[in-house]
Specification:
Layout lengths: L3 H10 L4 E5 L4 E3 H17 L7 E5 L6 H10 L3 E4 L6 H10 L2 E6 L7 H7 L6 E3 L10 H5 L16 E6 L9 E5 H14 L7 E4 L6 H10 L4 E4 L5 H10 L4 E4 L1 H9 L13 E4 L6 H11 L3 E7 L2 E8 L1 H9 L12 E2 L4 E5 L12 E6 L6 E2 L3 H7 L5 E9 L5 E6 L4 E3 L2 E3 L1 H9 L4 E11 L3 E10 L7 H12 L7 E4 L13 H9 L7
Parallel strand pairs: 1-10, 3-4, 3-5, 5-6, 9-10, 9-11, 11-12, 12-13, 24-25
Antiparallel strand pairs: 1-2, 7-8, 8-18, 13-14, 14-15, 16-17, 17-19, 19-20, 21-22, 23-24
Helix pairs in contact: 1-8, 2-3, 14-15
């Protein structure tokens, strides 16, 4: 099977059913989207895109963004998405390293076209998703030159269908080779954890080039509608859920915090919601409890990474309910759930030995969800896949009942006075404070400690803040060694396009001028 078969299954559910819907505008049926994606595939073939040629996508969410993605994965090409929030130079570098030969972009990136043409010598064409630009046709204008007859590549399940970038929070993203089979496994895990009872309605808020795109394919598998939003305003999200009878959506924790902070969140109508998926970063346990109170028993946690997308572990709606019903299990809200049905998850030490329950080590993953490797990087591939497992770079442990707890990233540990300190433990305390919307904890240079624990917080609107009191709470809950030595307030924390706080940028602010970063 191929990735496009998820869409084809939705088409079989009903050609006239809505597939793509603008939250306040137009919509396209499965038949219209199928014809357009076939035209795109024919157009790519006519442009000289052969099997395994790389086709870039640089776009904000738009009614036609997902249609462009479908056209790429239907064709003989390989989908090469880049983060809309990257700098122009970084995107040009990523596309160049990915051997990009054709590019779909949104008009908001029109100013980057000259740079991209200069940096991508093999580029055979550029198409603008939403409108015509000077010297660049619009998607519909370009696609209408080609037939809408059915098109299917000769790809097989183990062929690469996408080269996805790693998170990029600690350096230049690596190109992750993702196959059709990887996506099949992702969807199998998805449907096992979140059974579909009727045609779903997916509210697309996060970028379609990342996790929301995977969710859009899963939505298509049952003939569902993908409602495209360009706003991240909490009031607009609350309104769209009721107006479109949304059944499922995905948001990173940072966006959930903003929703919960909105004064109208408890007046929203969430009766249609079945699954509210949160992922991409650890969530505050206190805010998870609040989410369950506000949105109902619909929260689902998924843990994964680019190398094993979205569904290494899952905490289902039933898991959340069972945990809340038993006070002895409440600590499990701090976990990321248990291994998904079609994945093996274990904890490994530095020597490659699998560890027993409750011992900390690196979280490792095995199965058909795991990438083929990194594009043009055999050394890093071998390193990531040593001992026959994918090494996630996350430190954690697994309890006797299989629940996985992430302690921190290997590279995020703070070494202060010779002791290893996990930032996430401190962040959990700060997240619990009613004034805090979001936070990040890092190590900063200190003449005595080597690294001192520093917290940077983003406050809720109108919050009254006392840093000394916040530090005192951390001392009371964690002890003096782990408590922040200082807390700074920032208007907003830097974030990636998928909502991850960019600790790399925060560290750079404090480590500038230092000869080393530890």
């Amino acid at each position: 099977m191929q990735l496009i078969d998820s869409f084809e299954r939705g088409f079989a559910y009903g050609a006239d059913s809505p597939c793509l819907v603008e939250v306040d505008g137009d919509s396209l049926s499965y038949l219209q989207v199928r014809e357009l994606s076939c035209q795109i595939a024919h157009g790519l073939h006519a442009a000289g895109i052969a099997r395994n040629s790389k086709v870039g996508l640089l776009s904000a969410n738009h009614l036609l963004t997902f249609a462009a993605i479908l056209g790429i994965v239907r064709s003989d090409g390989i989908w090469l998405p880049v983060n809309a929030r990257n700098s122009p130079a970084e995107n040009a570098n990523i596309l160049a390293r990915g051997d990009c030969e054709f590019l779909f972009l949104h008009s908001q990136f029109a100013s980057q076209i000259a740079l991209l043409r200069a940096e991508l010598p093999a580029l055979k064409g550029i198409v603008c998703i939403d409108r015509e630009l000077p010297g660049v046709p619009s998607l519909t204008q370009w696609a209408n030159q080609y037939p809408a007859q059915y098109y299917r590549s000769e790809a097989v399940a183990d062929d690469v269908v996408a080269i996805r970038g790693t998170g990029g929070t600690t350096g230049l993203p690596k190109g992750v080779l993702i196959t059709h089979r990887n996506y099949q496994t992702l969807f199998a895990n998805w449907y096992a954890a979140m059974p579909i009872e009727r045609r779903p309605v997916h509210l697309v808020i996060a970028p379609l080039s990342h996790a929301a795109g995977a969710m859009a394919f899963a939505t298509c598998g049952y003939g569902g509608a993908n409602v495209i939003m360009n706003s991240t305003d909490p009031a607009d999200i609350i309104d769209a859920i009721e107006r479109h009878a949304v059944t499922q959506l995905y948001l990173p924790p940072t966006m959930i915090y903003k929703l919960l902070a909105h004064p109208g969140v408890r007046r929203g109508n969430y009766a249609s919601l079945r699954y509210f998926v949160y992922s991409a970063a650890p969530i505050s346990v206190d805010k998870l409890r609040e989410s369950l109170s506000v949105f109902g028993p619909v929260m689902v946690q998924a843990y994964g990474q680019a190398e094993a997308p979205f569904s290494c572990t899952v905490m289902t709606t039933h898991d959340h309910a069972a945990i809340l019903a038993n006070p002895q299990w409440h600590h499990r809200l701090a976990s990321c759930g248990r291994a998904s049905p079609f994945v093996r998850v274990a904890i490994m030490n530095a020597q490659g030995d699998l560890l027993p329950a409750n011992e900390q080590g690196e979280i490792v993953v095995q199965g058909d969800l795991v990438m083929r490797g990194y594009f043009k990087d055999t050394d890093k591939t071998a390193q990531a896949l040593q001992h026959g497992w994918l090494h996630t770079g996350d430190i954690g442990y697994q309890d006797a009942d299989g629940y996985v707890y992430i302690v921190d990233r290997l590279k995020d540990l703070i070494v202060s006075g010779g002791f290893n300190i996990a930032p996430n433990e401190i962040e959990q305390v700060l997240w619990s404070l009613p004034e805090v919307s979001d936070c990040a904890v890092i190590g900063v240079p200190d003449a005595y400690w080597g690294e001192a624990v520093k917290a940077v917080v983003e406050l809720k609107e109108g919050a009254q803040w006392n840093a000394e009191q916040a530090i005192a709470v951390c001392v009371e809950r964690l002890g003096k060694m782990k408590a922040p030595k200082s807390i700074d307030v920032w208007t907003s924390l830097p974030r990636s396009s998928v909502g991850k706080v960019l600790k790399r940028e925060i560290r750079e602010h404090f480590w500038q001028g230092q000869g080393r970063r530890i």
